[in-house]
Design brief:
The protein is mostly helical. It has helices at about 5-35, 45-55, 65-85, 100-120, 125-155, 160-165, 175-195, 205-230, 240-270, 275-290. The chain has one domain (about 5-290). About 75% of the residues lie in helices and about 0% in strands.
Length: about 290
């Protein structure tokens, strides 16, 4: 595969992620409202909210330091970097050699840490309580995340190689990998319903925080969907027709993920169940044990 095609595919992937992330959030909110018997908002509402917030100047607490000022931008950068490494419609993108599961795990953990630091930096009681709850949840979910991605990294290849193993069926023959993917799905379920630490943000800072949240949601859909349902993804040496098929398959995976996330929010409520966190940790621990045997 030529470097030019890999770079074009990478650029198209990033454009799709940034453009579709707010729309996916709007679709999830509309589906959740429809499932709950409420009037559904427009799927473009997240775009309008972000545009409205960007037009306002942020107001920060007098006790806040530079951490609160840079945290929203850092969250967006981390989310975009992680999204750039996770395949959507094709394999063999320009950054595919860097898409190691451990690197993705480090970025996901950093995306959890930055909002917690910003909430603590605000110096308010509400922000401190929210940060403590998020840190407590991370004891289970981030441990499960690290264990699951560690097991997937034992294959010695990057994320593309793991996806190819899923496409040809060899991933299903590895019990440790199957348990690791199940653990990732449970961690994703916890991540998409956890409250966002937005107490310390306003105006442009709040808009950046929401963009990071939206990109993270789409990235989780791509990561879990690509591992569990990798079919239709364009190969590294594919042509334009393969890209079209890959885009259609990607749209189908994201649509199924939107239905699952909306149902989870309606059934599970605003906060994830502690049992979900413990189950994710159990799956991650078992997969690591099986993988090391």
């Amino acid at each position: 595969m030529s470097i030019l095609v890999a770079c074009v595919g990478q650029l198209l992937h990033l454009v799709l992620m940034l453009a579709a992330a707010p729309v996916l959030t709007g679709v999830v909110e509309a589906l959740a409202a429809w499932f709950g018997g409420r009037a559904a908002p427009s799927v473009m509402q997240p775009w309008w909210d972000v545009a409205r917030l960007f037009a306002k100047a942020p107001v920060r607490a007098s006790s806040a330091s530079a951490v609160s000022a840079v945290a929203p931008s850092v969250s967006v950068v981390l989310a975009v970097l992680c999204a750039a490494l996770v395949s959507s419609f094709m394999l063999g993108m320009a950054l595919a050699p860097l898409a190691d599961p451990i690197v993705i795990a480090a970025l996901l953990v950093a995306m959890r840490v930055v909002p917690v630091l910003a909430a603590m930096d605000s110096g308010t009681a509400e922000g401190g309580i929210a940060a403590a709850e998020a840190a407590q949840a991370a004891v289970f979910t981030e441990t499960a995340l690290l264990l699951a991605l560690f097991v997937l990294s034992l294959s010695g290849g990057g994320l593309d190689r793991i996806v190819v193993a899923g496409m040809d069926g060899t991933l299903l023959t590895d019990p440790a990998a199957v348990l690791a993917v199940a653990a990732l799905a449970l961690v994703a379920g916890e991540a998409v319903v956890q409250p966002v630490l937005e107490n310390a943000y306003s105006a442009r800072d709040l808009a950046l925080s929401r963009i990071a949240k939206q990109v993270r949601l789409l990235m989780w859909c791509d990561l879990v969907g690509g591992l569990a349902l990798p079919f239709g993804m364009a190969p590294a040496d594919g042509g334009p027709l393969d890209w079209l098929v890959g885009l259609a398959a990607w749209g189908g995976r994201v649509g199924l993920a939107a239905l699952a996330v909306a149902a989870l929010r309606v059934v599970g409520g605003a906060r994830p169940s502690p049992a979900l966190r413990r189950l994710a940790l159990a799956f991650g621990a078992v997969s690591a044990g099986v993988g090391l045997l």
